[in-house]
Design goal:
This is DUF308 domain-containing protein. With 187 residues, this protein is mainly α. It has eight helices and no strands.
Length: 187
């Protein structure tokens, strides 16, 4: 089924990562959200520095591209803004997180539909790992500014549920594959 639910080891690591990140977001929503913004700022700063280095190297060779300079200044401005006013960035976080959950759930929907149609052993957790993110993502998208803390906690809960469902799917598929070696659909 689905190349043994995407590739078993990758699914296990991803499920463990989702669960760990989800627990941190559930237990420490304020600290996690601020850390998220700071990490985003650091990533933008690193992106800007890479373009600054490219611009300076090209300028020495008389091929300086003003686009690289622009791609230095814009991320630097965002990084400074995010470090000084992380709450402003967090105000739109529920909309972003809701969109990410919707994309995750919609991306798994074809797998869930195939699993239900073909009656695969891991169909229920796989279906839940598609439906739960869609429902929670829709709630966050349609009411994004209600509360950032609740949004972070909901996102954390969704990650835990998604990771647990993925883990259950891998385990059930492994058991089904071990008990039905040589019969049924190719895993």
């Amino acid at each position: 089924m689905f190349e043994f639910f995407w590739t078993r080891s990758a699914s296990l690591w991803l499920a463990a990562l989702y669960i760990a990140m989800g627990v941190l977001l559930l237990v420490f929503p304020a600290a996690s959200s601020t850390l998220f913004v700071w990490t985003l700022a650091a990533g933008a700063a690193a992106y800007g520095v890479s373009h600054l280095v490219r611009y300076l190297q090209d300028r020495k060779a008389d091929k300086g591209n003003p686009g690289d300079l622009f791609l230095t200044l814009l991320p630097a401005a965002f990084s400074a803004f995010a470090l000084i006013w992380p709450q402003t960035i967090l105000a739109v976080l529920p909309l972003v997180l809701g969109s990410l959950l919707l994309m995750d759930g919609v991306g798994k929907l074809p797998l869930a539909i195939t699993g239900l149609r073909e009656q695969f052993p891991g169909m229920i957790p796989l279906t839940l790992s598609a439906i739960v993110p869609i429902v929670l993502g829709a709630i966050l998208v349609f009411n994004p500014f209600a509360a950032v803390r609740i949004a972070v906690m909901v996102f954390g809960g969704a990650l835990v549920a998604d990771g647990a469902s993925d883990l259950a799917t891998v385990i059930l598929e492994k058991r089904a594959g071990a008990s039905a070696v040589g019969s049924g659909p190719a895993l």
